[in-house]
Amino acid sequence: MTLVEKMPKNELRASISLASIYGLRMLGMFLILPIFAIYATQYTGGNNSMLVGAALGAYGLTQALFQLPFGMASDKFGRKKLIYMGLIMLVIGSIIAALATDITTVIIGRALQGAGAVSAVVTALLADLTREENRTKAMAMIGATIGVTFAISLVLGPALAHWAGISGIFWLTAVLACLAILVVKFAVPNPVLSSYHSDASATPAKLKDVLKNTQLLRLNYGIFALHAAQMAMFIVVPLAIQNTSNLDVNHHWQVYLPILLGSFLLMVPAIIVGEKRGLLRPIFIGAVALMLVAQLCFAGLIHSFWGIIFSLFTYFVAFNILEASLPSLISKLAPAAAKGTAMGVYNTAQSLGVAVGGLVGGYLAHHYDYPTVFVFCAVLMSIWLLLTFSMKTPPAVRTKMYHLERTTEAQASALTKKISALPYVHEAIAIAKEGVLIVKINTQNKQATNGEQEILDIVMNK
User: Fold this and answer.
1) Domains of the chain, residue spans
2) Residue 427 contacts residue 420 (beta carbons within 8 Å)
3) What is the C-alpha separation between 123 and 129, in angstroms, rounded?
C-alpha cells in the first residue's frame, strides 16, 4: 500500500482537491514565465525590460505583502471565505491583464493576481481537514503538485502562447481560477472546526523567535536569492534563446523539456543520498556552489546558444536540488511548535525574491546588458554560499504528530518531558490547546525503529 492509499477517503479527497487548487492557480502563474519577455513587445512600453521585469515581479510583491495576513485572517473569518476572496482577486487581475494594451496595465493586473495570496489559507484548511498523522503526507502532495506544475508550464507555455497569444494565457489563468473556485465549493469538504495549527499556520506570537533564528534566516535568504535569480533569468533567457537560434518561441519547449528531464534524473539520487546517509549539508552546499557556477556560465555564455543550453542544465540541476531541500531543512531546523510560522516567513521571503528579481533584473537588462543581470545573480549566490558554510548540520529527523484527547496544560507539560527523555527523540512538544503532540525522531538512532509505536503507547496511556 502507498502512503496515499493509507489515508482515509475523506482526507484523501481533501488533500487531492486542495492540491488541485494549488495546481490550477500556479499553472496560470507559471505559464507566462518562459514567454512573457518575448511577447511583451506587443504592449505599449513592452520594449522596456525594466517594465517587463516589473510586470513579472509585481505578483511576488503583493503576494509577499498579503500572504501572512490572509492566513492569519482565515483563523477569524473562515478558510473558504478567504480562499474565495483570493481567487476572485486572481480572476479580476487576470482579466485586467488579458484586456491590457500597455505594459502598465499588465503590471496592475499582475499585482492584483498576487494580492489574492491564498497559499497559507489553503494550507491551514488542509490542516483542518486532515488528522495529525496524515498531515505530512497531505502537505507533500501539495509540494509535488507545485513542482510538477512548474515543469509542465515551461513546456506548455510556449505552445499555448503561440496558439492563443499572451492575452490567451491570462484568460486561461482566469478560467483556471474559476475552476479552482468550483473545486472549493463542490469538492473541498467543509471543516467541522477551523482552528490554529502550529505546524501549518503562522502567528504573530512566534514571529519574533523565528526571525531571531539565524539558521532559519540563512534558509530564508536562500529561497529569496533562488527565486530572485529565477525571475531575473526569465527576463533574459527567452530572448537570448530567440536571438541565438532559429527556434520560434513556440518551439522553446524543445529546449526546456530535455533539460528538465535530465536535471530531474540527477536531482532524485542526490536528495535520496542526502537524506538516507546524513549528507544533506554537503549536498546542499554543493548545490549552492553549482548555482553560482550556473550564474557565471550565463554571464559568460549568454550570447551562445549551446552556452545557454549548458548554463540552463547546470541551473536546473542546482535549482531542483535546492527547491526540494529547502522546505525539508526548514522543517528540520524550525522549532516544532513554530513550523507553520517558519514556513510562512519562508514563503514570504520567496515571494520577495520574485519581486526583487523581476525589478532588479529588468532594470539591469534595460540599462546595461544581459551578462550584467547574471553578475547580479552571481553576487546573490556568492553571499548565499558564504552563509551556508556556517550552517549547522541539520538533524537527521522525521516529524511525527499524534492526536491528544482532552489534555490539560499540566498533562501536556508532563507528556512533553516524558517523550523528550526518550533516547531517540530529538525534540518533542505537547500542545494542550491544539490537542497535538509533535515529535522529531532521530532516524539514525537504532531504537527509533520501534519508537513510533512506543510513543503511541505512551500517548494512549497518558
Assistant:
1) 1-194, 202-394, 397-460
2) yes
3) 10
